[in-house]
Amino acid sequence: MAILEPKTERHLDHMIERYPRLEVCRSSISDAYSLMEQCYERDGKMLIAGNGGSAADSEHMAGELMKRFQAPRPVDQKFAEKLKEIDPVRGVNLAANLERSLMAIPLVAHEALTTAYINDVDGLGVFAQQLYGFGRQGDVFLGISTSGNSSNVLSATVVARAVGIKVIGLTGQSGGELAKVSDVAIKVPETETYKIQELHLPVYHCLCLMLEDHFFGGTKS
After folding, report:
1. Is residue 77 part of a domain?
2. Domain harbouring 208, CATH code
3. What tens digit of pLDDT does each residue of 75-109 get?
């Protein structure tokens, strides 16, 4: 299990207090967080994919990373001054309102690209194609699959490993094939789809809080 900073680990402790069943996932959540932290320290990005409810979770998590979750994320003073210099009117507003991001791309959100690829090429390769286009060595791919056997997510893991992208699987209790091919697999202790999804939410919220506190500070528990 990765060793976490106390200010980071407190979010994990707090989540487990509220969801005691997730204690069995403590080690895998810590290890997943460590991969994400290393990725962002190297100016990498997260690529996230899933189907159905997991597609919604992909967009939800990306939204929490790309803007404030709980903590303020003001732009640095140098960039703020540059905005004002370029446009004394709009720049003031932008300097006050822009928020720093942890880059995250939900691979479920690009309708023109995805529908064209599905129609013209291959429905099961839709995430793999985007990962190949967007991904770079050092990034992280988070595949969300309640069964762990979603074919389009598994195809994306093949591309990820070929490019040099770490793979994190967020699955149910069995883990499926996704758990076997992931660098880290978070297997929440449920077997029914909707119950698995109910436990996925606190897991990725916790990861977002941990990342935000590390990179921007000031997050409340």
Report:
1. no
2. 3.40.50.10490
3. 999 999 999 999 999 999 999 999 999 999 999 99
What total number of domains does the chain contain?
1
Q: Which helix (H) or strand (E) holds 48?
A: strand 46-49
**What is the C-alpha to C-alpha distance for residues 14 and 210, in angstroms, rounded to an integer?**
11
List, in sequence order, every residue forming a beta bridge with 171; answer none if it has no partner.
187
Residue 106 has what pLDDT? 98
Residue 221, number of CB atoms within 10 A of its CB: 12
In a domain, 96, yes or no: no
Please give the Cα distance from 183 to 32 (Å, whole number). Answer: 9
Going by the DSSP 8-state scheme, the letter that residue 76 receives in this structure is P
Percent of the chain with pLDDT over 70: 98
Q: In terms of Cα–Cα distance, which of 12, 5, 48 is closest to 215?
A: 5
**Of the candidates 47, 54, 59, the residue with the CA atom closest to the CA atom of residue 197:** 54
Measured between alpha carbons, how far is residue 9 from residues 23, 79, 147 in Å?
13, 31, 28
For residue 177, the SS3 value is: helix
pLDDT tens, 38-53? 999 999 999 999 999 9
Q: Is the pLDDT of residue 220 over 60?
A: no
Mean pLDDT of 71-77: 95
pLDDT above 50 (res 221)? no
Residue 117 lies in a domain: yes
Q: Does residue 85 lie in a domain region?
A: no
User: Do the beta carbons of residue 100 and residue 68 sit within 8 Å?
Assistant: no
- Residues spanned by the domain of 125: 6-70+101-216
